[in-house]
Amino acid sequence: MRYFSSFSASHSLQYIYTAVTPGINFPEFTAVGLVDGEQIDYYDSEIRKMILKTEWMEKIDADDPDYWNRNTQNLQRAQDVFKVDVRALMQRFNQTDGVHTVQWMYGCELHDDGTRRGYMQYGYDGEDFISLDLNTETWTAANPKAVITKQKWEKTNEAKLRTAYLEHTCTEWLEKYVEYSRSTLKRKVHAEVSLFQNDSSSQVVCHATGFFPKAVMISWQKNGEDLHEDVELRETLPNQDGTFQKRSVLTVSPEELKKNKYTCVVQHSGLEREMKLSTSTISISVFCSSKISTGDSVEVF
Fold it and tell me: Looking at the UniProt record for this protein, which Gene Ontology cellular component terms does it annotate, in alphabetical order (predicted)?
């Protein structure tokens, strides 16, 4: 299932709800909230309460003392609905056993130019199922089995309500969270960019870690020209301290690596200029690195 992302986003708020069939070593229902990719809260069907996952979220208690209790109750209701959803979709797909999942993902973004974007989508067993089109305020069925859900939901004004939430309420909460987290999200940190190989015949890895905000670009050049072939850009991952890491992998033969100059180029908003590291100085299992100073209601199917 495709996840919503944007390199140009200034700030983002995202929620991911997951329901699974019972009987496996995993909670039947989980919910996770993230601000700029950093987890802010967590709920599951075993603990049955929403808990904070980052210290700066404690600041919300002064403004909204009932915040955690209210959202816990909302998620307990969502848990009950999603349990019904799993059974309903299993029946619709003629499935009587096995492990199956229902996911609900939604969120919003605030960009530097003031524009706002939102999204809402559902998935079943890792595949797109149905999503909200904010422009038309209608539902888009990504699977023939979702047409029934589309017809059911479009008999109500739920799409209009969800659109209003994403375009207004969601971004209002995002602005509040960003203000709470400003001391963390705006801090200056020192990140490290490294080039390494495990052995002389292995891939060359360009690894950036410790950067914030999340948006970063890692690219390769061959003899000064942009290189797009034999390059794999990996997913951006969070670090425990709220910063991020990302790597790009170059697949090239030892002969080509010796004959040509390959350069990893890292671009980030915290850099005054792009960072370049050349493979001409790489050693096996030795990191070639440089520090970077970075700148500041649920529906039944």
Answer: external side of plasma membrane; extracellular space
